[in-house]
Amino acid sequence: MREASLAPPSRGEALVRSRFGAISRGTEALVAAGEVPEAERARMRAPFQEGDFPFPVKYGYSVAGHVEDGPEDWVGRAVFCLHPHQDRFTVPLEALRVIPADVPPARAVLAANMETALNIVWDAGIQPGDRIAIVGAGVVGLLTGYLAAAIPGTEVTLVDVDPARAACASLIGVPFAPPARAPADCDTVIHASGSPAGLSTALACAGFEARVVEASWYGDRDVPAPLGRSFHSQRLTLLSSQVGHVPPGRRARWSHSRRLDLALALLADARLDALISGETGFSDLPDAYLGILRDRQTLCHRIAYT
Prior knowledge:
The chain is of the alpha/beta class. Strand 4 and strand 5 form a beta hairpin.
C-alpha cells in the first residue's frame, strides 16, 4: 500500500472518494506475474496508471464512488471511473461516468467487464435465432452469455470445466454444459476461458463457416491452436476481440464514453449480483490480493472502501 499526495481539483476536475472497486482476476493475475509482453506494455497501460511494467505499477480499472469536491453540480454524484485501486483520486470530469439511479454502486463495479462483453457481442455479430456457445464461464463469459441470451430467438450455452459455474449461469438465465456436452454446429462461438484447451473446445463447437471470437488474452504465453482437423474444411473464421477499440462498424458513432454509459445502464438487473464472488476491505488488500488472484473460484471480487 502506498500513499499519494492529492492536490485540490482544478477547473474541469473532480475529487472522487471510492466506495467500491473490483479486481479483474484474469488481467491482474498476468500483471502481478509480470507477464505483460514488452511489446504490449504501452497498449496495456490502464487509465491513470502510475509506474511501468513489470513493477512497481499502480493498476486496476474499476472504481465506483462519489464526487467529494469539484464543480457544484457534480458534488455528491455517484460515478464510475476506469482507475487503479485507490481510495481517493482526482481526475478530469470527462473520465467520470454518472451511475444510473437504478444501478447500485456496489454492482456498478461490473461496468468494465460489461463493456468488454458488449464489445464481444458486437464483434461476434450475433443475430436473432443464432445458436451460440460461450466457452469459459468467468465474469466476461457470463456477461457475454447474459447479453447474447437477451437477443430474440438465440440458443445460448455457457461451457466450462467447473461444474460449480452452472449455478451462476442458471441465476442469470443461461443454460450450462460441461465440455463433453458442449453444443455442436453453432453459428457463433466465443472463447473466454483463457486456456488452450478451451480454444480447442470452442473450435469444435463451430458449424460450417461459423465465426469463432477469441476474447481471451494470454499475456506473453504462446498458445497452441488446433488449426488442422476440420478448421479449413469447415471454413471457420477466428476473430480477435479486444475492448481497447470499438468495432469498425460502430466506431464512427460510438465513442468509448457512449459504450461505457450503455454498459452501466445494462447493469440494472439485480440477477447480476450473482457474479460478485467475494469482498475484501481496501486496507486488507495487501495481504489478500495474491490469494484472490490464485483462487480459480473467483469471479468478480469486490473491494470495499471505508
